[in-house]
């Protein structure tokens, strides 16, 4: 029995599901730090940046700060000499880092072929917590610009709020109980989807197979 049997539509997460975001982010921060501060250990820089990104992006997702403000907050904490910097200087510094990250964007193995194959069978969309303009750019890089995008910046609420899944399902024209959410985040893509009445598939590596939803380590498993 296939994972999508009985499904009318599929929603994919974007970062670390269709796009290998973490690998690109880590490569970007290493390249940036090596360029501007050779004395800083790259591994330590990656660890600190990951922690800051998680903390401040959560604040953005919860509506505490704007998208640009969460980026600036990361930089102020990461580089002490930027703690009092003006917004323009912070934005310029972030752009320098992000150019390295964007250059490393690449799809997760099997992501593009899986989405394209499923789109020939049923409605497929991308439901992501993030800024719509940036997330659309990622889809263009992946060659998936035609896939409907539902970004939290343009939704009533971010995942795991039930309103995010409801809005995406409505736009796809699919009932929640016949829609499958696929993603790497246990809270946002699995537990939240299940609570909202969707089905879910957890895309992860080395996860506990007693998870509350089917687990896959390769997106192509959805095609079986």
Walk me through what this model shows:
The chain has 224 residues and is α/β, with parallel strands linked by helices. It has 2 domains: 9-20 and 106-223, Rossmann fold, CATH 3.40.50; 22-103. Helix content is 47%, strand content 11%. It has 8 helices and 6 strands, in the order E-H-H-H-H-H-E-H-E-H-E-H-E-E. The chain has helices at 21-36, 42-61, 67-78, 87-103, 111-119, 132-142, 162-172, 186-195, and strands at residues 9-12, 124-128, 149-151, 179-183, 199-203, 215-216. A 6-stranded parallel β-sheet has the order 3-2-1-4-5-6, sandwiched between helices. Strand 2 (124-128), helix 6 and strand 3 form a beta-alpha-beta unit. Helix 1 packs across helix 2 (42-61) and helix 1 packs across helix 4. It is globular and about 55 Å long. The termini are close together.
């Amino acid at each position: 029995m296939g994972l999508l049997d009985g499904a009318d539509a599929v929603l994919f997460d974007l970062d670390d599901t269709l796009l290998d975001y973490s690998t690109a982010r880590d490569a970007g921060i290493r390249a940036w730090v090596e360029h501007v501060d050779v004395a800083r250990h790259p591994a330590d820089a990656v660890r600190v940046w990951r922690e800051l990104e998680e903390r401040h992006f959560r604040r953005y997702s919860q509506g505490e700060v704007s998208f640009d403000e969460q980026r600036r907050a990361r930089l102020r904490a990461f580089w002490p000499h930027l703690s009092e910097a003006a917004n323009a200087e912070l934005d310029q510094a972030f752009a320098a880092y992000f150019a390295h990250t964007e250059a490393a964007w690449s799809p997760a193995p099997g992501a593009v072929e899986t989405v394209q194959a499923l789109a020939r069978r049923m409605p497929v969309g991308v439901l992501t917590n993030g800024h719509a303009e940036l997330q659309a750019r990622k889809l263009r890089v992946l060659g998936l610009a035609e896939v409907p995008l539902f970004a939290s910046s343009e939704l009533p609420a971010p995942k795991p709020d039930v309103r995010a899944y409801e809005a995406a399902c409505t736009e796809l024209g699919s009932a929640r109980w016949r829609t499958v959410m696929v993603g790497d985040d246990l809270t946002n893509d699995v537990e939240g989807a299940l609570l909202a009445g969707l089905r879910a598939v957890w895309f992860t590596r080395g996860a506990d197979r007693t998870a509350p939803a089917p687990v896959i380590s390769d997106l192509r498993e959805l095609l079986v």
